[in-house]
């Protein structure tokens, strides 16, 4: 079996209602879907995180000419060859995100060719379903933010979620008020995590962390910029809240420092950006060796959801014991037609859990009508 063509689908959709966080406001959603076609007629799907025009061009102009004619079962070799060919220009960022999208499509192809789910090729599943937490609680252009956040949090509980993550990073006073509003709304029995999206320096993050410590926070995500490893260490040393990060880091080389310096308690590579399934399986092994929990960052279409579900199925519990700490899956609840419309059978949580897809490859069917409806090219 040989790769005969690679297509990219750059997609965009305007949002009905914009939403904001500590860095900017979202007015539209976008996605870049990779389609790899073989001479035997099989099609594999992947997704790249980040600016779709850039990742789409990288796959189409730089990677495609080097992979057409190759065997998709050489996925690990293809990864190393492409990384090495362009490492002078892109050890991080869109080059690696584009490589991730291509790599995921090759794993989908391998699974389809053999008639087995991707998680079996990755070493087998510890679980057939995984608890999900609701990512949401962004800013909306409405009055009375604490009341709006409390209402949304109650909706997530009603929908069956037993854990959720809210945005912070708006300054000490607002952060404490917003976190208190959400904790008061959901009560003590629901897990609550916070994400500052690297809005702070270390001393500000420590002050905010101390202000929200009384509200039983599951983890404090991206307190400081991803480049500031020492800042992560200072925040982690100062707070009792577990510290999470890694959605802006790439490849085993990038995660080496974060892990070896024990800068985080929880590492969060994004499969669609950190290097795809080939690389994230290696990063997960490194995290295990350093005693750091691995919980993927997930943000994208149904293709991204499926790829991350196959990977999380293969992540061992944080402690192998009678009462193991199981991984928990990030489920974005904000408006995203690519999550809800791109797959013929969308991946939707039931009672706060997601099933690992069981079909061959990623176990998904892409709806070509939705693909063309939102495609820019
Ligand atoms: Mg985050």
Entry summary:
This protein is an alpha/beta fold.
List keywords for this structure.
alpha/beta; Enolase-like, domain 1; TIM Barrel; nine-stranded mixed beta sheet; binds magnesium ion
Secondary-structure map:
Elements: E1 3-20, E2 25-38, E3 43-48, H1 52-67, H2 75-86, H3 94-114, H4 118-121, E4 129-135, E5 139-140, H5 145-158, E6 163-167, H6 172-186, E7 191-195, H7 202-212, E8 217-221, H8 229-238, E9 243-245, H9 251-260, E10 266-267, H10 276-289, E11 293-294, H11 302-313, E12 329-332, H12 337-341, E13 353-355, H13 368-374
Parallel strand pairs: 4-6, 4-12, 6-7, 7-8, 8-9, 9-10, 10-11
Antiparallel strand pairs: 1-2, 1-5, 2-3, 4-13
Helix pairs in contact: 1-3, 2-3, 3-10, 5-6, 6-7, 7-8, 9-10
Bound molecules: magnesium ion (MG).
Magnesium ion binds at residues 195, 197, 221-222, 247, 297.
Overview of the structural elements:
- The chain is α/β, with parallel strands linked by helices.
- It has 13 helices and 13 strands.
- The protein has helices at 52-67, 75-86, 94-114, 118-121, 145-158, 172-186, 202-212, 229-238, 251-260, 276-289, 302-313, 337-341, 368-374; strands at 3-20, 25-38, 43-48, 129-135, 139-140, 163-167, 191-195, 217-221, 243-245, 266-267, 293-294, 329-332, 353-355.
- β2 (25-38) and β3 (43-48) form a beta hairpin.
- α2 (75-86) runs antiparallel to α3 and α7 (202-212) runs parallel beside α8.
- The longest helix is centred in the N-terminal third of the chain and has 21 residues, at 94-114.
- It starts with a strand and ends with a helix.
- The site of magnesium ion (MG) has 6 residues, from loops.
């Amino acid at each position: 079996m040989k790769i005969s063509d690679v297509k990219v689908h750059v997609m965009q959709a305007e949002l009905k209602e914009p939403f904001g966080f500590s860095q900017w406001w979202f007015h539209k959603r976008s996605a870049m879907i990779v389609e790899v076609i073989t001479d035997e007629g099989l099609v594999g799907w992947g997704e790249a995180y980040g600016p779709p025009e850039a990742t789409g061009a990288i796959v189409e102009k730089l990677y495609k000419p080097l992979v057409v004619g190759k065997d998709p079962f050489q996925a690990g070799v293809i990864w190393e060859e492409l990384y090495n060919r362009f490492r002078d220009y892109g050890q991080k960022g869109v080059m690696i995100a584009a490589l991730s999208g291509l790599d995921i499509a090759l794993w989908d192809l391998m699974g389809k060719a053999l008639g087995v789910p991707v998680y079996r090729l990755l070493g087998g599943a510890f679980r057939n379903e995984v608890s999900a937490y609701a990512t949401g609680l962004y800013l909306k252009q409405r009055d009375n933010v604490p009341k709006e956040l409390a209402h949304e949090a109650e909706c997530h509980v009603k929908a069956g979620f037993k854990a959720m993550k809210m945005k912070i990073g708006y300054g000490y006073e607002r952060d404490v008020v917003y976190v208190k509003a959400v904790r008061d709304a959901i009560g003590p029995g629901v897990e609550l995590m916070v994400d500052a999206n690297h809005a702070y320096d270390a001393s500000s993050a420590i002050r905010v962390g101390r202000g929200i410590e009384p509200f039983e926070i599951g983890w404090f995500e991206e307190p400081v910029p991803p480049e500031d490893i020492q800042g992560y260490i200072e925040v982690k040393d100062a707070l009792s809240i577990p510290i999470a990060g890694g959605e802006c880091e790439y490849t085993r080389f990038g995660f080496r420092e974060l892990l070896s310096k024990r800068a985080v308690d929880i590492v969060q590579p994004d499969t669609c950006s950190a290097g795809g399934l080939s690389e994230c399986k290696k990063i997960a092994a490194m995290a295990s060796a350093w005693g750091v929990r691995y919980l993927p960052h997930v943000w994208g279409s149904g293709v991204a959801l499926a790829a991350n579900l196959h990977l999380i199925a293969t992540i061992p519990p944080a402690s192998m014991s009678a009462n193991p700490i199981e991984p928990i899956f990030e489920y974005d609840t904000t408006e995203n037609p690519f999550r809800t419309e791109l797959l013929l059978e969308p991946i939707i949580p039931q009672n706060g859990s997601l099933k690992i897809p069981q079909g061959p490859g990623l176990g998904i069917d892409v709806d070509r009508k939705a693909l063309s409806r939102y495609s820019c090219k």
